[in-house]
Write a structure and sequence with these properties.
single chain, about 110 residues, alpha+beta, 3-stranded mixed sheet, 4 helices
């Protein structure tokens, strides 16, 4: 009797309009120009890469926006050098912290002499 389900707890009427509209003719368009029809909650979907142009499926080597990322990084480094901002390495930060701890007064006598 413990595992018996109680039918009186289950609501008899489900809520209306809880699920989104599903399009059976949704069009997926890739940046390479390939497009196909699928089922989705959106009418149109734009993707950057698909099975027609992905290197795994085509077997061709292709670098995707690698050069752009390198250019962006080089630009950020150039701006940082021009601005004169000096970024300390982790070792330098640790050494500065250790030096600050050494300079702290340890005893009451040290505090009075300041």
């Amino acid at each position: 009797m413990r595992n018996a389900k109680r039918v009186d707890i289950i609501p008899s009427v489900m809520k209306k309009d809880t699920h989104p509209q599903v399009y059976t003719d949704a069009v997926v368009t890739c940046a390479c120009g390939n497009s196909f029809v699928t089922m989705s909650t959106k009418k149109e979907i734009a993707v950057e890469i698909c099975s027609a142009c992905h290197p795994f499926f085509t077997g061709k080597k292709r670098y995707i926006d690698t050069e752009g990322q390198i250019d962006k990084f080089a630009k950020r480094m150039k701006v940082a050098k021009e601005s004169g901002v000096v970024v300390k390495s982790a070792k330098e930060k640790k050494a500065d912290k250790a030096e600050a701890v050494k300079k702290k007064p340890i005893t009451l006598k040290d505090l009075r002499s300041m």
